[in-house]
């Protein structure tokens, strides 16, 4: 009650400034209350802005991806010589997985550290080195935190492609391969979704690579045309060789006995078949390489 009377005396004190609002009610002049509201609004905006800054997409993505990368690392904890004991068809799938995770300009797309790690991981899979594969996979969570921008998306796409190779191996052993595939695909999908597109909208690079062991060859229109010329020249040589063998009469050749005669005839027939087949294959190769060169040239444009 004292506070109420104090408030009433404060309101109706004759020395306090008053004003009349649209409802014709007398109240205190609002000099201080709007100031407090403005300060409160400013503080709330500042706090919300700080929270927005702390909850940036990159930080949340790193927090979400770390457990998935740890799952990949743990899935490669396999028994000794596990890869070496795989059947031949699964070993071929393992080589395909090695190619998918390291093909193309892996260092340019994923960075120096991650690119070298993926190349070493690919070599370990190719030689079926389980222990080296486990050691490299254990470092992936730490290396993934260094990825910036489109490198995360490139790394994620490689994980998805290679994980699908493991998935195609089916059930083997205690399901280790499927556990690897699931972890790689799940992490790859999250990373590939974090593609950072620049304002200039960079054009996608369409590169075709051929891999022969450790040798990688990029397919271009110029290389395809050079291959077509080589195939054409080789076809002409095979054709001339076959014509030279066929134009040589059998009567001009002398044999010591009948066995030598049969051997000579069979050898002549084998050489003719080899030369004619090489000529036909060279012709098809020439046509195919010319068409490939045109396709690559049109795709580049």
Dominant shape: elongated
Order of helices and strands: HEEHHHHHHHHEEHH
Q: Which structural class matches the secondary elements?
A: mainly alpha
Number of E strands: 4
Task: Please provide a written account of the structure.
- With 301 residues, the chain is mostly helical.
- It has helices at residues 2-11, 33-54, 57-75, 88-102, 106-110, 112-126, 130-144, 150-167, 176-192, 221-247, 258-300; strands at 18-20, 26-28, 208-212, 215-219.
- The strands form two sheets. It has a two-stranded antiparallel sheet. A two-stranded antiparallel ribbon has the order 3-4.
- The longest helix is centred in the C-terminal third of the chain and has 43 residues, at 258-300.
- The chain is elongated, with a radius of gyration of 37 Å.
- The protein starts with a helix and ends with a helix.
- Mean pLDDT is 74; it is low at 1-57 and 196-204.
Produce a short descriptive summary.
By secondary structure, the chain is mainly alpha-helical. The chain has helices spanning 2-11, 33-54, 57-75, 88-102, 106-110, 112-126, 130-144, 150-167, 176-192, 221-247, 258-300, and strands at 18-20, 26-28, 208-212, 215-219.
């Amino acid at each position: 009650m004292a506070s109420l009377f104090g408030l009433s005396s404060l309101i109706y004190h004759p020395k306090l400034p008053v004003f009349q609002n649209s409802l014709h009610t007398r109240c205190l002049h609002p000099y201080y209350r709007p100031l407090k509201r403005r300060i409160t609004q400013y503080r709330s905006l500042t706090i919300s802005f700080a929270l927005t800054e702390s909850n940036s997409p990159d930080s949340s993505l790193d927090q979400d991806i770390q457990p998935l990368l740890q799952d990949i690392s743990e899935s490669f904890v396999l028994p000794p010589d596990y890869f070496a004991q795989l059947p031949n068809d699964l070993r071929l799938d393992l080589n395909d997985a090695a190619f998918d995770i390291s093909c193309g300009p892996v260092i340019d797309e994923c960075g120096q550290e991650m690119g070298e790690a993926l190349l070493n991981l690919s070599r370990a899979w190719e030689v079926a080195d389980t222990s080296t594969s486990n050691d490299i996979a254990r470092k992936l969570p730490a290396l993934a935190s260094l990825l910036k921008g489109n490198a995360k998306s490139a790394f994620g796409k490689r994980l998805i492609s290679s994980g699908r190779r493991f998935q195609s191996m089916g059930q083997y052993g205690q399901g280790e391969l499927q556990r690897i595939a699931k972890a790689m695909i799940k992490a790859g999908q999250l990373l590939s979704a974090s593609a950072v597109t620049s304002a200039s909208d960079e054009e996608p690079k369409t590169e075709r690579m051929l891999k022969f062991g450790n040798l990688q060859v990029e397919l271009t229109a110029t290389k395809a045309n050079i291959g077509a010329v080589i195939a054409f020249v080789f076809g002409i040589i095979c054709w001339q060789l076959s014509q030279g063998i066929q134009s040589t009469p059998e009567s001009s050749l002398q044999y010591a006995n009948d066995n030598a005669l049969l051997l000579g005839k069979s050898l002549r027939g084998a050489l003719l078949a080899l030369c004619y087949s090489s000529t036909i294959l060279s012709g098809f190769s020439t046509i195919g390489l010319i068409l490939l060169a045109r396709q690559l040239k049109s795709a580049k444009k």
